[in-house]
Amino acid sequence: MKKLLLIFTVICSLLAVVSCQEEELDLKNPNALTTNQFWVTPNDAELGVNSIYAMFYKDGLWTRWMYFRLDLTSDEGYSTSPWIELADWTRFNYINYNFWEGNGVTWRDSYKAIFRANQVLANVPEIEFQDEARKQSILAEAKFLRALHYYYAGLLWENIPMVLEPSRPDDLPQQVSKEEVFAQVEKDLNEAFTDLPMQWDAENVGRPTKGAVKAMLAKVYMQQHRWNDAKTALDFLVTGEGANYMLVDNYKDNFTDINENNSESVFEIQFGDQRRGGTGEGPDASVSSNRAQFFAPRGIGWSDGQARFWLVDTFKEEQTVSGELDPRLQHSLFYPSLFEDFGDKTYGRDWEWGEDEAWFRKGARDYKRDNEDYFSGVNWRLIRYADILLRYAEVLNELEMTSEAYQYVDIVRARSNMAPLAEAYPEIGNDQDRFLDRLKIERVLELSGESVRWEDLKRWGDLENQQSVDEIAERDPDFNNFEIGKNIRMPIPQVEVENNPNLEQNPQY
Amino acid sequence: MRTILPFKLLFILGFLLFPLLGLNAQNTVVITGKVTNLNGEAIPFVNVIVKGTSVGTSADIDGNYSIEAEPDQTLVFSYIGFDTKEVAVGEQSFINVQLQEDVAALDEIVVVGYGTQQRKDLTSAISVVSSDQIQKRQTTTVAESLQGLAAGVNVRGGGQPGQEARIEIRGLKNLQNANPLYVIDGLVTTANRDFNPNDIESIQILKDAAAAAIYGSRAANGVVIITTKKGKKGPLQINVSSKLSLTEVPQYDLAGQEEFVRLNNMAYDNAGIPRQDLNLDVNTDWQEEVFRTGMIQDQNVSFSGGGENSSYFMSGNYFGNKGTVIDTRFDRVSFRVNSSGTKGIFSVGENLAISNSKNNEIGGPEALRGNPFIDVVRLFPTIPVRDESNPGGYGYGKSGVANTFGANPVAIANLIDQTIENLRIRGNVWAELDPFPFLKYRVSFGYETSFDDFKYLRKEGSWTLNQPFDPSFTSQNRAQSQTQLLENTLTFDKEFGKHDITLLVGTTYQKDTYEQINGLKRNLLINPNTGDYFDVLDLGDQPQVGGFRNEASLLSYLGRFEYNYDDRYILNAVFRRDGSSRFSDENKWANFPSLSGAWRLSNESFFNVENISDFKLRASYGELGSGNIGNYEYQGFINTFGAIVLGRGQNLYPSATQVRLANSQLRWETLKQTNIGVDLSMFKNKLQFTADYFIATTEDVLFGFPILLSTGNDGGNPIANAATVENRGFEFNMSYNKVVNDDLSFNASVNFTKLNNKLVKLGSGLNESIQGNTITRAGGPVGMWYVLQTDGLFQSQQEIDNYTNSEGEVIQPGALPGDIRFKDINDDGEITNEDKEIVGSPWPDFEMGLNAGLNYKNFDFSMNWIGSFGATVYNGYRSIVDRFDDDSNYRAGVQPWTPENPNTDFPRVVKGTTLNSRGDSDRWLEDGSFARLKYIGLGYNIPANTLEKIGFSRARLSLSAQNIITITNYQGLDPEFSNSNIFQRGVDLGAFPNVQTYSLGVEFGF
To answer: Which of A90, A454, B462, B604 could form a disulfide with B467 if both were Cys (CB 3.0 to 4.6 A apart)?
Structure first.
């Protein structure tokens, strides 16, 4: 009996132990907020929208590889990287479509940015704000940024999946055409326009303004040759209510951290050097640009990207009104006679590189140091007013308003002390084609190495017939690899094609 | 030795008393002697009787006996676990007897989880491995020593000091983690490198679901139950062993400087680009700089003993492994105490192990650049080891002079110090109450904790071309893991006539926590006197701190019903219900039932085959679970680390968002396994045969398949119940033992495993998953080779022009003579990714183990062979040295195609073009079959009479070698490599090869 009692006691205590343990199965993560606990306060919305800006700092986008896609793939730049595959991806030698640095990471990071925008757009409307206007401008920022990333993704791959809701792991989004991508970009931008301010206060400079929206709209319309729409958008910046922009006196101020967010800046990616970690999602993830480290000459940076030498020659074709070299050459390139021409050394060094070599100078920090690293804080002027003026001229020319277009080119030329276009090139007159041909050169002189050349070439149709491609190939032999109808867009990462039944590889890949 | 005296006195006393008791002592002689096993080790307490009489005695603790018998009588020596032996007395007065261990050991007790069963009564697939098989090898972990010893158990090790072997029981059943559950003395844990294999008494491997079901959700990968040594009744026994081994790593046959220069120039010339300015004054043998002879020492001492009501076992071990690669070593110090005591119906005991292990590894976090087995081939003979013009002073690639991104391992060894140290305490206390003979209550509390200390010091300097400047920094973390396990079980065991019933019920509760703090500082202070860095987290700048805590808990109810009718029909039913904190509320709980039965035909009255001593048929079905995922996988989290720059002041502002996606609907992964088997013993248990066929289907496999990049997911693929995996296999084990005479005996066993792996379906609407050069398609095995196929070389322009598709399009218009011809599988006139096909399997057709032993007098010899046949593997080494588009050193003696040397299968070498060198072709696939002499050893037991003189009870010398013979066509370093990526298991890209080991061992006991 005593024994039975003992057993009874044991079993009872056993059950007691068990029942109080069942609650122990509810364990909360002590390390992070869950998604359900976030998106509650206006501050969450601020943090959330900021995270979309943080995507500028990732490898695949504007910290590093975007410049390879836009500047080096175009005829302005090339790569002699000893990392063959890296160089191959700047010369249409696409073999492994999954190559991460050349393709996958830019694709992924574009969608990572879009995912962040989608989170804001899906969750912020539910949050109660005291300041309703701020709520609307947060949503407008998200739309602007989503449009920006879709614009560049559309530019690179053209036929891409459209994701407009926060992602779920088993999503298989539907591929759409370039036209549909641009239509979505247009829609987002038009919606963003209403709720964004003309100017931000000093603390928030760097967020998109109404002017930035119109500039992006102009870009997307121009790529579609919708010249009237483009003109309307550009009117806002040049002649309309948003015409508050002005070229800075010193051309170089567009490429250093000395005069950032200046009067010429329409939309600028804000970089800093405060954090020294990698480009991932860790606690010290950097907020810097790697461009200069990758583009600086051998021995100073990686020299994975170089400028084609025809740029030097183009600059030297025309002199200023006072008979000097185009001053933009000095700030655009490192090249062999830089010292001879302008008394300027290359990162303090004498020219020690090839006589036919040149490197991009925009964004370089040689004005304050003799080397580079991964932590450049120089803002990247994604859209500046000089680009807008030249675009305005291009649009007017396309709309057969060539004579009105001259003045805008001349504003840009005048800063660099170049004679008015009509004086320098009287033969152009009102000939639309000649004007466009000249404008193509003007854009190079003003904007070389600023990541606009690839969209320019596409817009001008220069990549669509063999004759013009052959001409380009004379400047940049990489275009000997260029296949018409194929290389105008990049291959989609193969894993995406294979794992998404709603996605097809781009033609001819 | 003094403690032995009372026993001796007792026996002398007994001897004196026998005549007084009036036994017939006429013509009798006193016979004395010693009973030992075949190794010469004393067997204590052996029963000795005079045949046909009631006269008997038992031997003492040292195996010595003394008995009176007449010359025409016969002595019978018997003891549990040994064959009975009869010896005629004759004229002898001194009879030493060796008893053969009862190899069949059908009465052997097998630990089955929360209880034991007799081996003959097993209804499920369980392998038993004896401790001496394990301990004779020189290994870091238990898993490594199981290699080739049990059917269905696949083990792959590696030669890196402290490297833990990968073990897979019955194939790849899930995609997360193939490691089985380890249960050491009832404590659910891992037998990692902190555990001293010398402490093992026995190992049982529970292979099928019915056997493992009692462990429910943890057991889907099988269970390895380890019982550590316990003290035996008797005075203090001391055992000391010492093993010393030299290790050698296999090396590549690389080109010397002259050959390298010739080939490199050829590649540049063929590409029409200027040769690089190779530094011909330098001639470095990188392998000589990086590899060395390693040394392992394994020192072990144990003390054990016990009385009527108590026992104890203590051991101490030092294991030191100086690696075969510079700057690598592993050291372990461990202690163990196991003891138990009984009073009346109450008994109590404890097992406790403490170990401290420290591991130095070479290399940084970047796998490719810090791997010496890759770097020694990527560096040129023309690169100096030291180069003062580089930051830090080490040589490496230089643009235009040595175009390689290979990292200098000597630089890494000196510029990076990385150590991981763990202090682990692992143990449990248990108490048992036996109020009735048929009832037992047991409570066990287990606790395991590990204090982990990670230190990383990076000094200033570079080791590879284009390395960004990094300031010196130290990154350190301290962590503690804890596991608490509380188990209650109640066992009822009673025979009712021919019915034998055992019933077990219980509960278990386990809680795991892991907590870490970490810190980092840059720009460390250098001591100007010594040049050393201050590597504490104090003297530097840019501090950074962090930390995290993870918790998980598991609550289970379990029950087992065992029924045995007349030793003919045996039935086992097991049920376990598990609840885990890792799943959301609606998916927390799952049930895991199993049922198994056996029929012992040999005990049926109609079964009467003379040579068959035991014949049993078994069948089982069971379900097991796995919740082997991160702690909070079902929830999405917000990453709050981000920051952005804004404003006129260019200040930092915080940002936060979801980065990694999550599946809220995660549920348990379930393994359903059916097993049928047969056990057969013949010729008085000399020949034993066990065979099993099984079908194991894992449903809802938890795995993070890559999801679309267009989801924008980052930070790891979200875990999903993604797939169904099926493994069908056949395995058998056959062993034969024969005692020829007192001096000579031998044994041999062979095990065989054939496994077919199949991914039945992939989740998320996917039909296939491509990873690297492999494809996993629904309906096919995991990770099949999916590459382009080569078809010889073009010998002439004409051959290139004639190589067209069905519409006459030239397929490779850019090729030149000497280039590889690829097959245009889809006939579209181009070589693209669409031309890839499945061309081979990384899975072996079958694997085998072969073990043989021989005892002759005091010598014993044994060897183990393992073999794996039919796997196709990717030779990553060759994909580097044979590519030529990217510079590296080359294989010695390659004969590339040239117009003068067209009769070769090696394409023309060209710098910079990836045509011939593309990594996704079958050019790099090879037959990975091999057979390997895993172990060969010779031992000598010093004879008993010599031992007595020196006062030892046993002493043994041994010589052995591991991995010294490998038969294979594989051209990489080691066909027995291991790759932890489940989908790319056949890719050998710089895996640390198994080392050749030569060992000398001494053991003695007193």
So the answer is: B462
Amino acid B833: pLDDT:
82
**DSSP secondary structure, A360-373, as one string:** E-TT--TTT-SS--
Type of residue found at B334: S
Beta bridge pairs of residue B561: B503, B573
Query: CA separation (Å) from B194 to A446, B143, B201, B424, B917?
Result: 66, 12, 17, 7, 43
CB pairs under 8 A between A and B: 276
Cα separation, A404 vs A393, whole angstroms: 8
Tokens of B752: 């065989």
Residue A407 to chain B, least CA–CA distance (Å): 32
State how far the Cα of A428 lies from the Cα of A305, in Å rounded to an integer: 35
* Least confident interval from B11-20, B352-361, B479-488, B580-589: B11-20
pLDDT at B368 exceeding the cut of 60: no
Which structural domain, as residue segments, surrounds residue A147?
Answer: 37-196+487-499
Question: Looking at the domain assignment, is residue A389 inside a domain?
Answer: no
The residue of chain A with its CA nearest to that of B469 is A373
Give the span between the Cα atoms of B751 and B148, in whole angstroms: 8
Give the architecture (CATH level 2) of B2-99: Sandwich (2.60)
Radius of gyration of chain A (CA): 26
Q: Which residues of B touch A116 (CB under 8 A)?
A: 657, 712
Q: Which residues of B touch A29 (CB under 8 A)?
A: 631-632, 635, 637
Assess if residue A134 is contained within a domain.
yes
DSSP state of A36: G
Q: Which of B466, B486, B920 sits opposite A96 (nearest CB)?
A: B920
CA-wise closest residue to A417 among A278, A493, A321: A321
Q: Which of A6, A31, A35 sits opposite B636 (nearest CB)?
A: A35
- The H or E element that residue B515 is part of is strand B499-522
B2-99 against B109-235: fold identical: no
Query: Is A97 within the bounds of a domain?
Result: yes
What's the confidence (pLDDT) of residue A76?
Answer: 97
Measured CA to CA, the distance from residue B910 to residue B903 in angstroms comes to 18
CA distance B992 to B465: 24
Nearest to A34 among B635, B647, B654 (CB): B635
The ipTM (two decimal places) reads: 0.94
Helix (H, G, I), strand (E, B) or coil at B587: helix
Could you please state the CATH topology (level 3) that the domain comprising B109-235 is classified under: Ferric Hydroxamate Uptake Protein; Chain A, domain 1 (2.170.130)
Q: Does B527 touch chain A (CB under 8 A)?
A: no
Whole-angstrom distance, CA of residue A95 vs CA of residue B885: 14
Q: How many domains does chain A have?
A: 1
Q: Name which residue leads in pLDDT, B952 or B677.
A: B677
Integer Cα distance of A433 and A427 in angstroms? 12
pLDDT digits (tens, 9 = 90+) for B91-149: 888 888 888 765 444 456 777 778 777 777 777 778 888 777 777 777 778 888 887 77
pLDDT digits (tens, 9 = 90+) for A77-89: 999 988 888 999 9
Domain harbouring A133, CATH code: 1.25.40.390
Give chain A positions within 8 Å (CB) of B439: 7
Q: Over 80: is that where the pLDDT of B12 sits?
A: no
The answer to whether B228 and B712 have CB atoms below 8 angstroms apart is no
Q: Note whether residue A323 is domain-resident.
A: no
Phi, psi of A443, deg, nearest 5? -65, -40
Any alpha helices (H) in A224-370, and if so which ranges?
227-238, 291-295, 310-315, 327-332, 338-342
- Domain parsing of chain B, residue ranges: 2-99, 109-235
Residue type, A459: R
Distance CA B59, CA B97 (A): 11
DSSP label at B902? -
Contacting residues of A for B404, CB less than 8 Å apart: 82
